[in-house]
Amino acid sequence: MSDNVLELNDDNFQTTLSSTDQPVLVDFWAPWCGPCKMLAPTIDELAEDYSGKVQVGKVNTDDSRQVAIDHQISAIPTLMLFKGGEVVERVSGLQPKEQLAALLDKHI
């Protein structure tokens, strides 16, 4: 995981989202999930590319079940973009970097 990717969990999720004015892209994933592993390098690249404009974080749904339940995560990977603490975009499944970049560009 890139140094620019925040490790989010049940304890720090709300605090992290409420402590920034930047949009926050959150990757809900699990270590056993093949598509999640395939998406991980893209998430790291986006964190680097959008450093200073968008915060990027990951939630391990196995370790942080409450956050996953609160956000109705029923499939992984699921990516959610938060702005002002509210969900403005949600996509599930493996997504190409270009599509995710376009999603971020709409909100910065």
Which labels suit this protein?
108 residues, alpha/beta, Glutaredoxin, 4 helices, 5 strands
Report what the structure shows.
- The chain is α/β, with parallel strands linked by helices.
- It has a single domain, classed as Glutaredoxin (3-Layer(aba) Sandwich), CATH 3.40.30.
- 34% of the residues lie in helices and 27% in strands.
- The chain has four helices and five strands; from the N terminus they run βαβαβαββα.
- It has helices spanning 13-18, 34-49, 65-70, 97-105; strands at residues 5-8, 24-29, 55-60, 78-83, 86-92.
- It has a five-stranded mixed sheet.
- β4 and β5 form a beta hairpin.
- The longest helix has 16 residues, at 34-49.
The gyration radius over C-alpha positions equals 12 Å
State the fourth-level CATH superfamily: Glutaredoxin
Shape: globular
Total DSSP helices: 4
Number of domains: 1
Which regions have little confidence, pLDDT < 50, spanning 5+ residues?
Answer: none
Helical residue percent band: 25-40%
CATH class category name: Alpha Beta
**Which strand order does the major sheet show?**
1-3-2-4-5
Distance between the termini: 23 Å
User: What percent strand?
Assistant: 25-35%
SSE pattern: EHEHEHEEH
Structural class: alpha/beta
Oligomer: single chain
What is the arithmetic mean of pLDDT? 95
The CATH architecture is 3-Layer(aba) Sandwich
Tell me the number of strands: 5
Instruction: Provide the CATH topology.
Output: Glutaredoxin
Largest sheet: 5 strands, mixed
